[in-house]
Amino acid sequence: MAKVVAGNWKMNHGPAVTEGFFERFRPDANAGSVRLVFFPPDLSLAAGIGSARVPADFGVQNIHWEAAGALTGEISAEMAKEAGAALALIGHSERRHVFGETDAEVDRKVGAAGRAGLVPVVCVGELIEERKAGRLEEVLRRQVGAFRASLGAVEEFMVAYEPVWAIGTGETATPDDASEAHAIVRDALGSLGRAPVLYGGSVNPANAAALMSAPDVDGVLVGGASLDPEVFARIAEAGAAVGPG
Ligand code: PEP
Q1: How far apart are CA 109 and CA 66, in angstroms?
Q2: From CA 102, how far away is CA 146, in angstroms rounded?
């Protein structure tokens, strides 16, 4: 399968900056062989869809599990779909650790994405204390186990392994660390383990090719380095050079 190169813009890039991004985002023609995905802020989704000049899918960074209701500030999977999103990030580390999202809530959101026909990109990953205590496998199995049953009703999904200690820190897991964790995720997924598993955590143009060449790594989820169109184009080109598989 083609490598997935996904950018999570977090709370950056309003609609005007988004249009400017796509004026300057010009990866080599080869990069057409990767699956490009952008997760802009909700308010920039339409600007992104309208101004992208390369084939790309768009997604939202979070959804609520209810379809509608008195839930100020939230958006539903159904609304995201109607607005042109094809995917939804679920359980990103910042949602879990800054906003206190629980495994049970992640599971409800996976169910909601499936109901609306969005592709959930479900994030998992351990804290540094958990890694140091030798609890990597236990944590990943618990996180995947919490939403695995809900994937039965989902047509397509991805998992992103994002060690919390590597997000936005400049510290990256080695390709071997990523492969080890991805193999655990696949095993925990059981019969669903052939879905794409992406690596995220301080990916940049210098480390992207090595990470995407590692066994069991199907692509990358990129935060900071996805904000600059020239830098993100280099990462897409790295994925294309590694090739499918
Ligand atoms: C992320 O936000 O998913 C992420 C991996 O961020 P960064 O690449 O900045 O570490």
Answers
A1: 9
A2: 10
Spell out the alpha helix ranges (H) of 99-216. 103-116, 128-132, 136-148, 175-189, 208-213
Q: Of 156, 130, 129, which is closest to residue 143 (Cα–Cα)?
A: 130
pLDDT digits (tens, 9 = 90+) for 152-209: 889 999 999 999 999 999 989 999 999 999 999 999 999 998 999 999 999 999 999 9
Q: Give the separation between CA 146 and CA 1, rounded to whole angstroms.
A: 27
Pocket of ligand 1 (CB under 6 A): 8, 10, 162, 167-168, 200-203, 221-225
Structure tokens at 87: 């995917």
Nearest CA to ligand 1 atom 4: 223
CB contact at 8 A, 200 and 210: no
Active site residues: 92, 162
| CA 129 to the chain's CA centroid | 23
Residue 236 buriedness (CB in 10 A; 0-12 / 13-18 / 19+): buried
Q: How confident is the model at residue 32 (pLDDT cuts 50, 70, 90)?
A: confident
Read off the pTM: 0.97
User: CA dist 61 to 8, 37, 129, 137, Å?
Assistant: 7, 12, 26, 26
| HSE-up (13 A, CA, CB side) for residue 8 | 29
Give the three-state DSSP class for 7. Answer: strand
Ligand 1 centroid to residue 46 C-alpha, Å: 23
